[in-house]
Write a structure and sequence with these properties.
Helix content: 55-70%
Distance between the termini: 73 Å
Radius of gyration: 21 Å
Order of helices and strands: EHEHEHEHHEHEEHEHEHHHHHH
Shape: elongated
Number of helices: 14
């Protein structure tokens, strides 16, 4: 049977395109039909509904915005759910809470399906380059069936044991990513507001031990004030909330994450949720300008 792919957003579309271009027989569906056009051109079949994807595909990848979207596509909580997932491998690749994933696994298994948790590390550019990193957890035989299908999308895959091991690993990785990009942005803001040559600052950064693939992508965006989305601030805020919830449930301190959480909440509240995560610069600038205004008023 074909493989199925549901969810052709910023990440999903390039991921599905890699599958199609690798010769994987593919059937796709997206809520916004226009996003399917490149897949049709690449040889994929465009389904009229999620149900048609499951009718044609034995393994179905889901790259959807949130838990509600996953439930809707699967028909979870309705009589359609069992008919849709029975005999299929269901592979959610987005980021959800670990508890949600464990519950969905149980429901898929009870309906006669198999389940593989497969979140990925990387944003739009690695997705376009086929350089994502996948973390896999679930039924061992299903994981081995899914792994070769991910080869066109991922530079590496890692077995993370039982569900929700892959999602907990993804949240751990994202905690580092969020604090890393926020730290880079605050350093850029510091240099800028001290009147330093911003390009020279980035040259010094790139020449030293702090340089990384992340800084090489995000630093030029800061310099150009290019907020075109690679990883949206609203999605970073969602990830931040999921990590914070997991930390609280485990009784863990997360002071750096908590500061980032507040800054991304401010970024989204200011109307920049659809911009790239480096738009957290706007929250930092607003805090600085607000503090200066308060100081001037007190004088």
């Amino acid at each position: 049977m074909d493989a199925g792919f549901v969810g052709l957003g910023v990440m999903g579309q390039p991921m599905a395109l890699h599958l199609a271009r690798a010769g994987t027989p593919l059937v796709v569906w997206n809520r916004t039909p226009a996003r399917c056009a490149p897949l049709r051109a690449a040889g994929a079949h465009v389904a009229a509904s999620p149900a048609e994807v499951f009718d044609r595909a034995g393994t179905v990848f889901l790259m959807l915005a949130d838990e509600a979207a996953v439930d809707e596509v699967l028909g979870r909580g309705t009589p359609d759910f069992a008919a849709r997932v029975a005999g299929h491998v269901v592979v959610p690749m987005g980021t959800t809470s670990p508890e949600y994933s464990a519950g969905l696994r149980d429901d898929v298994r009870a309906a006669g399906g198999r389940y593989v948790e497969a979140p990925v590390s990387g944003s739009r550019v690695p997705a376009e380059q086929g350089q994502l990193v996948a973390m896999l957890a679930g039924d061992a035989d299903a994981v081995e069936d899914v792994r070769p299908l991910l080869a066109p999308l991922c530079q590496e895959t890692f077995d993370c044991g039982d569900v929700p091991g892959a999602l907990l690993m993804k949240l751990s990785v994202n905690l580092f990513l969020i604090t890393l990009v926020t730290g880079l942005t605050e350093a850029f803001h510091f240099a800028d507001r001290h009147g330093l040559d911003r390009r020279r600052f980035l040259d010094v950064l790139a020449a030293g031990p702090m340089a990384s693939p992340v800084s090489q992508v995000k630093a030029p965006k800061l310099l150009a004030r290019d907020f075109a989305v690679q990883a949206a601030a609203k999605d970073v805020l969602k990830n931040n909330r999921l990590i914070a919830q997991a930390a609280r449930k485990a009784g863990l301190a997360s002071p750096l994450l908590d500061v980032c959480h507040a800054l991304f909440e401010e970024t989204v509240t200011q109307g920049h949720g659809g911009e790239d995560m480096v738009a957290v610069l706007r929250a930092l600038e607003a805090r600085t300008d607000g503090a200066r205004a308060a100081t001037d008023t007190d004088r």
